[in-house]
Amino acid sequence: MIKASQSEPPLASQARATKYSTLSTLLARIKKDKYLLLLCLPGLVYFLIFKYLPMWGVLLAFKNYQPFIGFFGSEWVGFDNFRQFFQDPVFFRLVRNTLLLGLYDMVFFFPAPIILALLLNEIRKSFYKRLIQSLIYVPHFISMVIVASISYLLLTTEGGAVNEMVYGLTGEKMEFLTSEEWFRPLIITQSLWKEMGWGTIIFLAALAGVDQEQYEAAIVDGANRFRQVWHITLPAIRGTIIVLLILRMGNFLDRGFEQVLLMSNALNRPVAEVFDTYVYTLGITQGAFSYSTAVGLFKAIIGIILVFTSNYLAKRAGHSGIF
User: Which runs of E-coded beta strand occur in the chain?
Assistant: First the structure.
């Protein structure tokens, strides 16, 4: 009777057996796939060292960091840096400039690789298709410094080729590089020229997987090329478009620090300054480490919210999403 009363309950015994079974299964799988796991190890170490470990640095946003007394000796100020940022008049200017560039990017840049991929997919001669692909891929490998230099040489009022043409037609020269009105169109145009061709790679790969029998059936039914694209091609790559759109939302507030920094100046800065350049100016040039970290953390949190929101909406609309 004593042994029976001290014996383990059946449910606990069953749970323990299940736990041991799961552990043994996991160990068996690790042993079986040990070489594959070894191949993943460098990537895991990279993300651990360069992506996850530096995350503790966001604590600077909640401190009044002083380099000469160190991280642990600096005063903990809580959300004071965030409150200071939200009360600063520059906050609304940064939000407006960043959101407008992000909206222009989504409206003009994001659909451009899709349209270009659809046009390339219609080329039947493989030689011309490969030639055009090679030509439009080249700008991706050009440094943004060179792109900014080319823009300056073309658009400057001091002998720029475009401005000379405008002057010959109108008798006036346009202030492309210093005008607030021309800054955003210039940024979007540079992005289109540099990255539009490279962005077609994924969409061309998705188009290669479209079932050709669907096009043959559509031809039999009398559908023209536009109808085939609308009813067959676009639905076939819709999943790819949605995944890339969700990932793009995560970078909605990333406006290309290097590009904006190179193209901004004292005359267009009211519309050119975005979160990235503001963080650089405060953190690197002025040494406001805690305040600039708070600004960067705020931008990162908004990006995470946008990713989760867009993924949720995609799932509600019946699509797979990314997680």
Answer: 63-66, 70-76
